[in-house]
Amino acid sequence: MSQKLALIIVNNDYSARPLTNSINNGRSLVNVLKYMEYYQVELKLDLNSEDMNRYLKKFTKLLKSNSFIIFFCDGPRLQCYDQNFLLPCNTDEIMSNIQMRQ
After folding, report:
1. What is the domain count for the chain?
2. Nearest to 76 by CA among 84, 61, 67, 86
3. Residues sharing a CB contact under 8 Å with residue 84, sequence separation 6 or more, in sequence order
4. Which domain holds residue 50?
5. How confident is the model over 13-29, as pLDDT tens digits?
6. Which of 6, 8, 25, 43 suits 53 as a labelling partner, its CA being 20 to 30 A distant?
7. Which residues lie across from 9 on neighbouring strands?
8. pTM
9. Are 22 and 86 contacting, i.e. CB atoms less than 8 angstroms apart?
């Protein structure tokens, strides 16, 4: 029997412009997956870049060849050179560190 896993990442708490509905969207999705589809769900809120990397690595270690997974992110995204990126909540800090190195 396959396992059903879901990782839901919701980033809402941005210093420049906090989002208003992201956390509610994430919690609604968690409820649907847990109670209607019997998923093992991890909900992670307002992650910085280190936490995002840590939880993604932890989640991928749980996967097996017969896993059925859902990975959902809600929050601002950036596309650069045909790649999409979910922005962590500490984006301002990351950008200021990049600017200081230049």
Report:
1. 1
2. 86
3. 77, 78
4. 4-101
5. 776 666 777 888 899 99
6. 25
7. 44, 73
8. 0.79
9. no
